[in-house]
Fold this sequence. Notes:
alpha/beta, five-stranded antiparallel beta sheet, 48% helix, 19% strand, elongated
Amino acid sequence: MEAIKSLADYVNKGAFYKAVVEDGSDIIFIVDYNGNILYHNPSVEETLGHAPFSLIGKIFFDFVEPETLRNFKAEFEKSTTKPYDESIEFRFLCKDGSYKYLEFNSINLKHKEGFEGLILDCRDITQRKKDAEELLRAQKAKEQFLANMSHEIRTPINGIAGMVNLLTEATSEEDRVSYLNAIKNSTENLKVIINDILDLSVIESGKLKLEKIGFNIKYQLSAVIDTFQFQCKEKGIELKYSIDPNADTVLLGDPVRLNQILINLISNAVKFTHIGEINVKVELDRKEDKTHYIRFTVSDTGVGVPKEKVNHIFESFTQADESVTRRYGGTGLGLSIVKQLVELQNGTIEVRSMESKGTKFVFVIPYESGQIKDLVQPQSSKAKTTPRYSFKGLKVLLVEDNDINRLYALNILKKWQCEVDGAENGYIALERLRTNDYDIILMDIQMPVMDGYEATKNIRRGLKPPKSYIPIIALTANAIKGDNEKCMEVGMNDYLSKPFQPEDLYKVITKFAKEKPLQPIENEYIEATHDKVTDLTYLTNVCDGDKVFMRDMIETFITNTPSAINEMQKQISKMAWNKVGDVAHKLKPSITFMGIESLKPIIKKIEDNGRENYETDEIPALVNTLSSKCQLAFKELQKALNNL
């Protein structure tokens, strides 16, 4: 062969043919109008598995997927009428019996050379099709998630709005308490949804920090199990747990995140189980030096997950199918959070499920060995109460654009005897600061005109001491990706996420108001309780100094309790023990509010024995004791009313 001396020579002599056609990655077919294969290049072997030149003489249509052959032939016919055609998709049979997605661009030789044939330049588009399918699936999952979220958020909000309307028209204390409880439940549901979204965001941003403290699995697990026992009892399912003695030891790790994992998994099991039981098992998987690999198993006899859906349940925004959302609710984020929390702790998780039979989650997390001295003492289980101290004379500037949030904070601060001025945005706050002195500023972040960040910068840089040094506490509902750090960067002193409890606000104010002596709030109606039936300490803390509310609670107890006891005695005469137990259950909270400690075991025994139909012969005497004690309580409470 004559030597090729230049690129032009290379082109003129057609030497590029081998590089482009014979050695190219595209598959080249030459076929006649009837589909007879007259030529194909060697690329069919690499892409489709067929040996070089092995398809020559065969019919192209015989290798097209039968289900799509009719449509393909129609497209092929159109190509025979055009000089060129492009982007015709089809599936071609490989040597191993599978089909691959190909796409051809065609050149019609009749228009070029006068021959009835096509040159088909085919490319493998299998990966492109997979990517498109995955993108479509992800898009559908996200659309479904948004629809779910819209429903999940609207439901409690609508509930709150409805209950508020009813609350404004309520005339009886019983109705008011009922509506307030419904509002509280709706807000708790809303917080769960928002917390799921925030948890996922924090995890995926890499901002989540894990603790390494001492804890005992037995204590952790029993506390989690207790929170679900009542729910399981109501559904008629059994919740059991067991701990291998080898796993029952002091470990070092993050017990809060372990709780979060267990709560998510057990909550799922309770939601999807209607008959049977839920089992939680903790075992020592293995031990390597000082590391315990603890295996947790959460199994249920619930509805299960279809086989084709199991591999997707750990993905964000995903549930087994759309009907799951309609029937059971939820965001589809819980299991994604579980998986990421397990893996963040160097653990592994897997799931096995059979539709209509149940589901089993197994996860293993490594924990270092700990000692008794490493244990963090659990916080007191006593109910949180608003501190009974005031910040009398403390001057507070409350910067908040939302009317409800401002009213909430304002009422708390006034109960602590603070002197409070309000501002709807950062600009108004600066005007207030120029003409007034304040000891502390509570600053919302997102506000119109001027936000909290900009206002803080102006205070720190634009005002003279001591005003430029006033402690500023951020109040924000935005808890995503480093907001805390940003608050500190602009010069704020601390950070409080909304919605906050009065105790949280109290603690943060205490940090920056130490120069102001804390004044005890006057509680003249708290009397000595050593010889008394009632103790109003708890009610006083709950009412937080609101005498009108306290009076209403006491009057309601005095008015409603006799009729409740009469109803018990009426049901006793009918031997309707379960109804006696139901009345006792309703009376329990009132007994707690009035601090009648001596009646707590009695009312509980009446409730339990009545509902379980157990030792019912003791119930009449117990109700008589209840009646006698309540008569004494009424006299004491009437005196308390006179002092209010």
